[in-house]
Amino acid sequence: MAAITFIQLSLFLLLGFLGPYANAGRATCVAAERRALLSFKNGLKDPSNRLASWQTEDCCEWKYVHCNNISGHVEKLDLRNPLDYDTYEGAALGGKVNPSLMELKYLEYLDLSGNCFRGSQMPMFFGSLNQLRHLYLSDTCFGGQIPPQLGNLSNLNYLTITCLRTALELRSDDLRWISGLASLKHLNMDYVNLSQASSDDHWLLHVNKLSSLTELHLTNSLLQGSLTLSFTNLTHLSFLDLSGNLFEALVLNPFVKHDSLVTLNLNLNKFKGSIPDALANLTSLKQLDLSANGLGGPIPDIFVKMTSLHTLNLGSNINLVGGLPKSLGGLCQLKTLDLSENSMSGGISEFVDGLSKCANTSLEVLYLQNNNLTGRLPDSLGHLKSLTNIKLGGNKMHGHIPMSLGRLSRLEELEINGNSWEGAISEAHFATLKNLKRLSIFPSSSKSLVFNVSSNWIPPFAGLELIDLSNCRVGPLFPSWIQTQRSLHQITFDNAGIIDTLPDWFTSTYANLSFLVLSNNQIRGTVPLKYNGSSSQINVFDVGHNLFSGSIPSNINETMPMLTHLDVSRNKVNGAIPSSICGITSLGILILSSNQLSGSLPHCWEKLEALQILDLSNNSLSGTIPDSLGSLGSLLFLMLSRNSFYGELPSSLQNCSNLRSIDLGENNFSAELPKWIGKNLASLGILRLRSNSFRGGIPQEFCNLSSLRILDLAHNELSGAIPHCFGNLSSMIMVAPVNQFSVNTSSISEQIVYVDDVTLRVIKGRELEYDTNLRFLVSIDLSSNHLSGAIPMMLTNLLGLSILNLSANSLTGKIPEKIGSLRRLESLDLSRNQLSGEIPSSISDLTSLNHLNLSYNELVGRIPSGNQLQTLEDPSIYEGNSKLCGMPLSLECQDNETHDHAPNHVNEDIEEDEEGFELKWFYVSMAVGFVVGYFGFLGTLWIKKEWRNACSMYLEGIIDRVQLLWRN
Ligand SMILES: *[C@@H]1O[C@H](CO)[C@@H](O)[C@H](O)[C@H]1NC(C)=O
Ligand SMILES: *[C@@H]1O[C@H](CO)[C@@H](O)[C@H](O)[C@H]1NC(C)=O
Ligand SMILES: *[C@@H]1O[C@H](CO)[C@@H](O)[C@H](O)[C@H]1NC(C)=O
Ligand SMILES: *[C@@H]1O[C@H](CO)[C@@H](O)[C@H](O)[C@H]1NC(C)=O
């Protein structure tokens, strides 16, 4: 018994003696700190039980806790959420951060990133943890002000408080506290709202006191003002204040003391003004990102001494101009250069030649797209062997594409669309390009670049994901080499000169394509909407303007269930529109115009909640408009013209309150014009009901259409008077260009800068497309009806009016005296009415007029003369008014002889002119429509990042195409 006890005792002593050394000689937890951690744990919500180990005696053994080996004090608490951004909730801690943490007096490292203390104030006591060297609080969902007490952390080296998830909810209105962080090396406060802090320029001053800073990240923090202006102000301040604050006297330039700064990220803010020269002194800088601000002016030539620079991003400032600075060509370390989305001009040869002289070039990413660059692609590009990504799209470069490109064996992305390339692209251009994934050439001028490879070419690459050879001469045969590419998910051969059938292998090889554009070729065969076997993933399908025949398959909802955009316009597709089309609920754009479709519309539209553009015009469709069309609450454009629809418009259409344009022209609609158009479709810019059998009066309610710019009710059976209140159509009074009428561009471009660079390009592109006349087009055409009464005087209020056609009615009374105030009027047709009295002399004030017709009325007296009227000297303008006299008629005034010479038909040239005008309206309407439409459309595509660029090229193309479509 005693022996056993002895052994037990010995064991006990031995264990007791060894105990402290059992954990590799580590000191154990300090009791007070253990209690503090437990209180901290108790305040937390821990749904995934991450802190399960926090119960044993020795808190130094707990998960996420690290103690000092010797003292046993807790030094590090690393509670960072291990899950990634999207799945973070699975492991997020929540609840309250208990001030008991203050007991951890030796804490040097605290990381709570990725946990979510929703909406609560960031605790002030963090500022008491004065041994902290690392404090990481990214995406912790704290709101309100960052406590200025943080400024007491004078030992802190790393501070990260980014708020991507709850962007801008956390703020700091005064950054004074920052200057207390005397040891800070890295500061990252991306997505923290600093808008107040930057309302004066002192934020810069405070940041500038951080003399050890090597990394500064303040991305998307609503910082504003001018980086340059702030110096001048501070310079002045220093002179005023010399005796006072010594520090301010030193601050002549921002960051000038920070020659150790390695990273400076101030992108996605609102800085204006120019890029400061003072940056030249940041000679240690490796990364400089000032992208997506509002900086302008030329890029200063400041890179001579910045030889460590490997990333320079000044993209998306829109307003940067001038050439690439000379000193850029000396940056042999440069890996990434992004100057895209600006207004830079000049060529790139000097830069590329410069870099090609480096012993080792490092340049991997060259993004210069969407600028105003000119010149050629230099041969020396082939020396930049590290290049993986080249984007030069959307510039004005020209010439041949150098064969030396074929040497860039690491190249994955070549996007040079939207320039004026010429010559040929051959197999040699791809000689070593085994890694190519994205190829987009798409020259701006059609067919001057030939894609000349042999029909049995096997490219060195096999992993192409995207190809866009639009506007290149690829055909006449369908390129068979793409068969070798098994990963293709986007194919765009718009206007590629293909005169062929679609090969059999195509649909089977590419069953999983997401984006297919074959428009504007002469491809024959059955429209490839039928995929064998399983359903396809395709989102965008555009084969418009080819020679496809066949019909829309009745199981299209099963073969292509993911479509967002379907365009088979201008083919020979026949048959009916199957009701299964309503099963494609993602559909945003449906364009089936100019085919041979027949039958009536299906009755199931309520399912297409996302539909924004419905264009079925120019087919042989008939029947009535189904009520369910009125369920399309997103609809912006309803185009059903040139069919044989009849009956009334269903009153449900008044629910489509977003409609921008309705075109039901050239059908057989009869009925009175619905009053609800004026009451409920307030956004309507274009209303075209031409050539139907609408009858009755024009409702007064139409006068409420405050966005209306184009009203075409010609060739109907309308009677009664022209409403006087037409004079109140406010968009016809105010002369705003088209792009301000249907979308508020100012707010869109705000959004673009921060959200969506694709849309920006669409908008930019569109502005370049337009000539001003079209942008200002405002028109009323009520011709060929039975309208009676006088021309309302109020019409002369519509100062924006460029076209007014009231011909072939029964209008009486005089031409309004003040007709001459319509100074923008280009076309005025009042012919074939019973207008009487004299022609007002003010008509000679219509200085923009180039088409006038007053024939076949009962006008009397002398024809006014002067100004533009001198150029309108065709007597047919006035004929059929037996009592008119003077030039250009041969009837002299005060001569009672009547004039017999009167042809019975309208001059055909003038008829054609009218047609020309009418088509141009559509040009405007559709282009505007597409911009509006794509804005929403892109919303859905936005998720798929890799599409964005390809999309934008494509969108620009489609705008062109649609314009063509309406012009023919
Ligand atoms: C800085 O100076 C400019 C003009 O020199 C002035 O417009 C601006 O308001 C000043 N900013 C501050 C914060 O004083
Ligand atoms: C760069 O620093 C030098 C010396 O510190 C100074 O004289 C010069 O003005 C600075 N350059 C700029 C552009 O601020
Ligand atoms: C682009 O350059 C041309 C001349 O090459 C110039 O006329 C035009 O204004 C420039 N456009 C922009 C946006 O800078
Ligand atoms: C496709 O549409 C047809 C006809 O409308 C319908 O019978 C069928 O159930 C739909 N298929 C799917 C998968 O929705």
Describe the structure.
- Among the domains are: 400-409 and 417-500, no CATH class; 523-652, Leucine-rich repeat, LRR (right-handed beta-alpha superhelix) (Alpha-Beta Horseshoe); 677-813, Ribonuclease Inhibitor (Leucine-rich repeat, LRR (right-handed beta-alpha superhelix)), CATH 3.80.10; 828-909, Alpha-Beta Horseshoe (Leucine-rich repeat, LRR (right-handed beta-alpha superhelix)).
- The protein contains 15 helices and 58 strands.
- The chain is α/β, with parallel strands linked by helices.
- Mean pLDDT is 81; it is low at 1-23, 229-252, 737-774 and 896-968.
- The chain has a 30-stranded mixed β-sheet, with helices on one face. A nine-stranded parallel β-sheet has the order 37-39-41-43-45-47-49-51-53, with no helix packed on it.
- The radius of gyration is 36 Å and the shape is globular.
- Helix 12 (757-769) packs antiparallel against helix 14 (908-941).
- The protein binds 2-acetamido-2-deoxy-beta-D-glucopyranose (NAG) (4 copies).
- InterPro entries: Leu-rich_rpt, Leu-rich_rpt_typical-subtyp, LRR_dom_sf, LRR_N_plant-typ, LRR_R13L4/SHOC2-like, RLP23-like.
- Residues 309-486 form the Disease resistance R13L4/SHOC-2-like LRR domain.
- This is Leucine-rich repeat-containing N-terminal plant-type domain-containing protein.
- It is found in: Cell membrane.
Features:
about 15% helix, Leucine-rich repeat, LRR (right-handed beta-alpha superhelix), disordered C terminus, alpha/beta, about 950 residues, signal, single chain, 58 strands
Brief summary:
The chain has 968 residues and is of the alpha/beta class. The protein has 15 helices and 58 strands.
